[in-house]
Structure formats: C-alpha cells, structure tokens
Write a structure and sequence with these properties.
By secondary structure, the chain is mainly alpha-helical. The protein is built from seven helices and three strands, in the order ααβαβαβααα. It has a three-stranded parallel β-sheet. The longest helix has 19 residues. The chain is elongated. 11% of the residues are buried.
Length: 143
C-alpha cells in the first residue's frame, strides 16, 4: 500500500544519542505487533482504545502521552489509577520518567502484575457461564 511504501522510505532516527541500558528499536509499521508487545518491557503510546486493548492483552505496562479529550483521557485516567501506566509530560521530563521506570524493575513488575490482574481473556467463558446461570434461573422460576 502507499502508506507502507511511505513508511519504508522514512529514515528512522538514531537512538544512539539517548543513553539507555536496554536495547531499543523504533518500530513504525509491523504486522507482528503482538510479538513485539510480548517481548517488551514498556510501550510508549497514546491511550487509544485499540493500542490500550492490545497492550493489556499482552500484559504490557504503558507510558502514555497526548490523550485526546474524551475516551483517551478516560483510558489514561483508568490506566494510571490502576497502576498499568504512567503519564508523560509534554516536556523533557518524559525522558527522565521513562529512564527511571525502566531502571526500576520492581515498579515495572508491579505494573505488569496490575495488567495481569486486569486480564479479561477468559471473558467469553464467563459470559457463557452467566448466560447459562440466567437461563437456568429463569427456567427454575417459571416452574
């Protein structure tokens, strides 16, 4: 597609000027997002619904920025309140926030555990159990 072609031509900026202790790579377009999320310690992203859902499905803590008023702001508030994300500022303090978090393995583990505790991957089974319970309840009350 035209979008893929434009992204492939876009030169990725070098990360060498950022002194970081973990191997880091910028990914602009991929069809393997789940693979990258599952091997990552943190995702730096806007709190849009799809990305947040994918990150939570992979139990991946988030550093979030630039929430659009409405749903993204609500996502950000929920994630921060439940220790699944940190809020990044609009200034250079973001670098320090990310660096500090990546160095604090205990905090990253707590955030990952918060993501795991929010896991909804068994929701279809829970919904089916609730439907069966409600049907049985209705059938038993009509007798």
């Amino acid at each position: 597609s035209l979008k893929k072609t434009k992204l492939k031509k876009f030169k990725k900026p070098s990360l060498k000027k950022f002194h970081h202790s973990k191997p880091t790579e910028l990914i602009y377009f991929t069809t393997e997002i789940e693979k990258y999320m599952k091997i990552s310690d943190l995702i730096i992203t806007k709190p849009g619904g799809l990305t947040v859902s994918e990150a939570l499905a992979c139990n991946l803590p988030m550093a979030i920025f630039d929430a659009i008023p409405g749903q993204e702001e609500e996502n950000a508030e929920f994630l921060i309140k439940n220790n699944m994300a940190i809020q990044l500022g609009k200034d250079f303090s973001s670098k320090e926030s990310i660096t500090a978090l990546l160095k604090d393995s205990k905090q990253l583990i707590k955030m990952k555990e918060a993501c795991i505790s929010f896991d909804k991957s068994d929701s279809k089974e829970n919904i089916l159990k609730e439907i069966i319970r409600l049907v049985n309840e209705k059938n038993n009350s009509s007798i």
